[in-house]
Amino acid sequence: MKSSYKIHTSTGGTYYETKDLSLLNEEGYEESQESITTSYARCEYKEILLDSVAIIIRDDIIDAPLSIDLKYNYPYIKIHFELGEESVYTPNTSDGIKIAIGKNQFNFFYLPVVDGTLSFINQHKKSLEIVISEQYIRNIFKSGFEQISGRFGNALGNRKPYKLFEHSANIPSSLLIIINEIVNCSFQQEIKMIYLESKVKEVFSYIFSIINADMLNKRTVIMSSEERKQVFQIERFLEAKMDESYTIKKLSLLFGINETKLKRNFKQMTGKPIFSYLTDLRMEKAKSLLINNRLNVSEVAYVVGYKNPQHFTAAFKRKFNCVPSDFKKRFFDGL
């Protein structure tokens, strides 16, 4: 396979460039890593190519402020998780869309063509980017794509630019766990390929749950930036305190928000009710602990907030269709 996304070190000022994403329509696995220093940036760059997917992990120090002209005449579909400082894409054409992604924010977007300026205000850029072909996203959902793709599907069909969030959203705790698992994955190639493919699908399941919720909820309430920030704080709190029990009433008192608004805003931003979200958070953490630590099932149950291991086992089976002990055995038998 040929690289789809590559740092360009010419003195003309190009920071990076992409190639036509149709090149991703090839089967297999390829991984490359580069350290490059130019007059305007010091770049640590890692690219993993899967079937029709490019995963790009960057950690760069830039001579900011820096502006780069970008222009290529092929479609671009990407989820961008910014873990460093803000970057802003400003289109040169009137029918383009501006995309600003700040620290610890993310967005999902589609550009039929790219013609604009990418600007960096601050020095540190650290990101995880998942670039896909149109065929990949259609293959995931098969015949159901048209029913669940909403505004994104319409934009794709009409070749119009699209972004999921008008203002990029804070990265929820559940996605931060997946991001960490992708960035730090150290399995051997055969297992790594399957593992990363499953993680990418988890990310897209989350993205399309938001798209689908937006389609079904015609009475979506416009949330203020303070309300969005508050939901983000609650997500972080639940992640840090997942070993403890909290009622809706207790959370509403802790964060100074009435119970009705708390439940509505949380579900609107995350696509899930609070306790469904917390359960999923606990299960993803438990899965990671079972794989990466030497804890037994009872110890894992306790770490993620279950005092009764049987209740934990039942919740795990509902989520992953197998009990924790079988999951751990199957995983390590495959190594």
* Structural class label: alpha+beta
SSE ordering: EEEEEEEEEEEEHHHEEHHHHHHHHH
Helix content: 40-55%
Low-confidence stretches: 1-15
Q: What percent strand?
A: 15-25%
Shape: globular
CATH superfamily of the largest domain: Jelly Rolls
The CATH topology of the largest domain is given as Jelly Rolls
Largest sheet entry? 8 strands, antiparallel
How many strands in all?
A: 14
Average the pLDDT over all residues and give the rounded result. 83
Computed over alpha carbons, the radius of gyration is 21 Å
**What is the correct CATH architecture of the largest domain?**
Sandwich
Just give the CATH class of the largest domain: Mainly Beta
List its salient traits:
single chain, 335 residues, alpha+beta, Jelly Rolls, Arc Repressor Mutant, subunit A, 2 domains, eight-stranded antiparallel β-sheet, four-stranded antiparallel β-sheet, 25% strand, disordered N terminus
Question: Explain this structure to me?
Answer:
The chain has two domains: 5-214, Jelly Rolls, CATH 2.60.120; 220-333, Arc Repressor Mutant, subunit A (Orthogonal Bundle), CATH 1.10.10. The protein is of the alpha+beta class and 335 residues long. The protein is globular, with a radius of gyration of 21 Å. Helix 4 runs antiparallel to helix 5 (189-216) and helix 4 (173-183) runs parallel beside helix 9 (274-292). Strands 3, 4, 5, 7, 10, 12, 13 and 14 form an eight-stranded antiparallel β-sheet that branches. The chain has helices spanning 134-141, 145-148, 150-158, 173-183, 189-216, 225-240, 248-255, 259-270, 274-292, 297-303, 309-320, 324-333; strands spanning 5-7, 16-18, 30-37, 41-50, 53-62, 66-72, 76-82, 87-91, 99-101, 105-111, 114-120, 124-132, 162-163, 169-170. The longest helix is centred in the middle third of the chain and has 28 residues, at 189-216. A hairpin with an 8-residue loop joins strand 1 and strand 2 (16-18). 43% of the residues lie in helices and 25% in strands.
